[in-house]
Design goal:
Number of helices: 10
Distance between the termini: 69 Å
Strand content: under 5%
Oligomer: single chain
Structural class: mainly alpha
Radius of gyration: 19 Å
Largest sheet: none
Amino acid sequence: MVEKQMDLRVRRTLSSIQKAFYELVQEKGLTNISITDLTKTAGINRKTFYLHYNSMEDLLDVVKEESANRVLEVLGESMKHQRADEAISKFFHYLYECTGIQRLLLCEPENKDFYKAVMEIVLNSDTFQNFYKKTPYPNLTEAYVTSISSIYWEWDQSGQTIPLDDLIAYTAKLVSGGYKSVLK
């Protein structure tokens, strides 16, 4: 019984830390948060923080991993069954529709390094590694898939000047048919 209570307290503490982190990201930006800010906002002392994390970078790694896992959940079945068009659509819709902290972390220009780190986790996941291994040149396939992520980022940062569905169709056409398929 005591162990279950401890687990509940640990979960509450971790939740409090993460909630404070998200609040501070919105208030101060991703790179301007100190452990003092975090512990004060979470209502915990520094020792409690260090019981769970070695540093702010350690906490940030956990947040990146959680973000990557959300992306992988969205892409799961499409990647498993090698449905590239469907995976592109799901991925682009996920990024387009995410709100709040996920939008801030994944789509704001000042957090591009966070986005890149999350995409690196996604692209190095077992799901994608298995996908790459089914091709004769896995590293080239990985580079190609990375470019799909860049297409969305550039579209979003340039003001989303074309409709999302057009972007998805264009990207899928480019991926399946190559450069010649999109020539005017």
